[in-house]
Amino acid sequence: MCLCWKTTTSRSRTYSPNSELAKPNISLAFDLLDLFWARLAVHIRAENLHLFPAIANAPASLFTGKGSLSTSEEAHDLLLRLRSDHDFFMKELAQTIKVMREIADNQPAGAKDVEDGRQRLIIIGKRLEIHNRLEEKRAYTWPVMIFDEPTVARLHERLRHELKNLPPRFAQ
Ligand SMILES: [Fe+2]
Predict the structure, then answer these.
(1) CA 30–ligand 1 middle distance (angstroms)
(2) I need a surface site. Which of 2, 90, 113, 168 has the fewest CB within 10 A?
(3) Which has the closest alpha carbon to 154: 83, 63, 51?
(4) CA of residue 95 to ligand 1 center, whole Å
C-alpha cells in the first residue's frame, strides 16, 4: 500500500497526507494520516500473524532456491528485514501522529513543525515503497510455490479476515 489513495467519487482525485501538509491543510492531512496508519496496521498485523509465520515454519527443503524461489536462509533473512520494516513503520507513524496531533491542536501551525512532519512522511514513504516491492515480488509469491492449494486458500482467508479488522471509526 502507498501513502496515498484515490477518492471513490466520479471526479477521482488522489489525496495524501504529505500533499495536504504541503498546502498546508493540517486537518485533512491529519485525518488522511490517521486512516493510512490504521490501514497499514491491519496489513502489518495480517502479515506478522499469518503470512510470515507460514513462510518461517515451512520445511526448509521446500525452499529450493530455483527460479524466483529463494533458499530457506534467504527467506528467513527477508522475513527479518520485513519485520524490522514493520517495527519502523509503526514506531515512526505513532510518533508522527503524535506530532501532527499537536500541530492540529495548535493552529496556526509553525512552518518548521509542518516541514518536519512532511520530511518524516517522505522517509516513511520511501522505505514503504521498497518494502512493498520486496513483499509483492518475493514473500507474497512464495506460498503458491511451496504449499498445496487448500493451504494457500486457508492462508488467503486468514489474511482477508485480518484486513477487514479496521478500527470501528473507519468501518463503512
Ligand atoms: Fe509488510
Answers:
(1) 22
(2) 168
(3) 51
(4) 19
